[in-house]
Amino acid sequence: MGNKVSSFGKVFLTLGFIFLYLPILILIVFSFNESKLVTVWAGFSTKWYGELLQDSQMLGAAWMSFKIAFLAASAAVVLGTMASIIMVRMGQFKGKVAFTSMITAPLVMPEVITGLSLLLLFVAMAQTLGWPAGRGMLTIWIAHVTFCTAFVAVVVSSRLREMDASLEEAARDLGAPPWKVFFLITLPIIAPALMSGWLLAFTLSLDDLVIASFVSGPGSTTLPMVVYSSVRLGLSPKINALATIIVLLASTGVLMAWWLARRAETQSVKLPTHH
Amino acid sequence: MSWGQRSVISVPYLWLTLFFLVPFVIVFKISFSEMAYAIPPYTELLSWADQQLTVNLNIGNYFYLFTDDLYVRAYLSSIRIAAIATVICLIVAYPIAYTIARARPATRNALLMLVILPSWTSFLIRIYAWVGILKNNGLINNLLMWLGIIDQPIAMLNTEFAVYIGIVYAYLPFMVLPLYTNLMKLDKSLLEAAADLGAAPWKVFMTITLPLSKAGMIAGSMLVFIPAVGEFVIPDMLGGAETLMIGKVLWQEFFNNRDWPVASAVAIVMLLLLLLPITLFHRYQARELES
Hints:
The structure holds two protein chains of two kinds. By secondary structure, chain A is mostly helical. Chain A has eleven helices and no strands. Chain A has helices spanning 3-30, 47-54, 56-89, 96-108, 111-128, 137-162, 165-173, 178-207, 210-215, 223-232, 237-270. In chain A, helix 3 (56-89) packs across helix 10 (223-232), helix 6 (137-162) crosses helix 8 (178-207) and helix 8 (178-207) runs antiparallel to helix 11 (237-270). The longest helix of chain A is centred in the first third of the chain and has 34 residues, at 56-89. Chain A starts with a helix and ends in a 5-residue tail after the last helix. The relative contact order of chain A is 0.14. The model of chain A is unreliable at 271-275 (pLDDT under 50). Chain B is globular and about 85 Å long. Chain B has a single domain (61-290), classed as MetI-like fold, CATH 1.10.3720.10. Chain B is built from 13 helices and two strands, in the order H-E-E-H-H-H-H-H-H-H-H-H-H-H-H. In chain B, 72% of the residues lie in helices and 3% in strands. By secondary structure, chain B is mainly α. At the A-B interface, helix 1, helix 3, helix 4, helix 5 and helix 6 of A face helix 1, helix 3, helix 4, helix 5 and helix 10 of B.
């Protein structure tokens, strides 16, 4: 195919990136706006960042969200990795179809359904078992672990499938027990995928408004819940300032992870030449 | 199967059964109860009194859903809006995925990264960004009025148009990714063979590339369509009063009316409507996960 397609493609790609990035760029620009009006420029100022840092409700919610996201991502990586090993390495077993459905369905399940169903579960459990006693950080954590596990499983299982299984076989043939094979051979090879899975789960948890709104209780307000209630009252440059900080943190984190993963990949490709 | 294998399987299996499968059973159960001013705000299905077990199955909630015009219209318009947005997404994403798949390997990674990067920043805030752009005194209207193209602001925010923009904007990466993965797996020799035999580029595309990327198109479309049907944040922030979407109806039924049984019935019907697309997505994803 000639250059015609590629120049058409370039134009489309450029337009696509403008569409994806322009709104974010505008958001960042107006976070430095002097005026309270978010859409009229009135000079440069960093006062909204100052106000943001004094907003104790926002900071408290951000801290709560970070704690939940960290704990949820960590648990989701463990469960998601186990799920991937089951799907990729364990062959057929009774109930495998049901298992893969429970891994793929949360990826597309509308959040209002997940949120409502988990809330009703927690209420029913509290009624019959007396646990969890109230709704708060714990229930949000459980909800987040559940849907993040599915995303981690997708990321990790694709890496597991690409991985050369002969290394594991060799270790097994030499008499290593399964847990040793996993921790010494498999885990180091799939480590970059675990990291991307963890980051993905962390972001998904940090970002969730709908599910957390259903399963949270008094005193457990997460950052998206505060942002949502403030946005409902109207646009605020303070939210723009928050957005700028989030964009900055997220892009640094992702670019760093991407760079590390690529470095690990090129190293693992080079590995055979060391012999 | 060894003891070790069994325990590795049981942990995620039990977790997902308890926190993903069982909740649906409970939603189903509560959709047959009645709203009550109590904690929790619904009646029990089973009651035991005077050595009699009474089962109170209330199908009134479902009856209500199909008699009150609001719900039927909300389901239909959610499906319509999600379907149209999915098609727009596909049309926008295909050329992007195609171009990236044909780029040099080094550029390919960077371009893919650029497509995914926005989804790592807050979803809520990316939707919020469009409020400032689409408002009556927002950036587009200000720009057009400043240029003298219009003298009255065009109403864009709180319309269905804004909802389409929001869905396409938020879900674009979910369409690009499976399309890209699919196009990467395409057997290049087929394309070369067709070109060598004298087929025109568009003909190669229409007869080989497009049919072979069907699986990617289906996966991407389901990844956009299914969550979009139940979307709450986008119609709430960008849509208007006349933009009916079932996710928002469920939210209001739960949080504003506090009617848990009706909210449950709304969820069950939504789930039934989505069963076919979810099965379609699962079939594709299961092949991907196991092959």
